[in-house]
Amino acid sequence: MITKLQNRHDLSDEEFLELLQTDSYDDVLHKAADEVRRSVYGDEVFLRGLIEFTNYCKNNCNYCGIRCGNTNVERYRLSKEEILSCCETGFKLGFRTFVLQGGEDPYFTDERICDLVKSIKDAYPGVAVTLSIGEKEKESYRKFKEAGADRYLLRHETATEEHYAALHPAELSLAHRKQCLFDLKELGFQVGAGFMVGSPGQTNEHLIADLRFLQKLQPDMIGIGPFIPHEDTIYRNEKAGDLAMTLRLLSILRLMFPYVLLPATTALATIDPKGREKGLKCGANVVMPNLSPVEFRKQYSLYDNKACTGEEAAECAACLEARVKAAGYRIVSSRGDVRR
Ligand code: SF4
Prior knowledge:
The protein is about 40% helix and about 15% strand. It is of the alpha/beta class.
């Protein structure tokens, strides 16, 4: 099965199920994934400077710590000056991609987002700007693209209707989420989808549906990380997603999509102190350190005990560089575009 995947042949649902439900294939799977990532990206690891610029959100997703129904969160928005200052710090540290991530905050109108994108691109020519600000209409996405945005992250979370409905409030629909992703692709963004591993109610069949959806979408980036419960949600007593399953899926994704930009996520580093390094060894090739001002980081709490909320950007970059090197890879200072 692994050789089949390595040779770009599809697996049947039964074969995927076999890979997912046992750890017997893990060693071979991880090794094959690392070989494939090295054949496309060598030992390079790309840096993304994450700027969590607003924790206001109009939505009420059941699993999310900053959903609008959570009254225990202190809300904040970064000013344009604060955002540009994060970019300045990041640029000096060698970051050439900035990710503006936030809840679906109506204060940030299309005009304000476009102004932010243009200001970053004017101040730092040659950098890539990624937006991660949720579901919008196609016209809004078009404006963001025209303003210079290069990439867009929008996790689909689960490609199965009933599961989507269980995790989200009734006003959000999987059909619209998927439509957004296809609109973004059509507009020429480098597009990222993805899902949580081990979210409440998730089965291996749901995961196979996720893999099938990704085959259809052919995204440039895939963000997966373990589900981690947040104390202010109905899932506070649920189990967190499993490290082994997340690593298994990272490797499967690398084999299915050799070119894909695959982050070793903060959630992975949260459930295991060596999670990021393990992710890199299983096929991941992107790390996304936080450039947001330290005083706001704890308030951008999507899940509990998030890793690396205390370090200043420079401290964090130095620590990451050493960790990546020790794992056998090399952080490079470039935009880190997809290599199809
Ligand atoms: S998951 Fe995203 S859209 Fe849903 S409540 Fe959290 S920030 Fe808002």
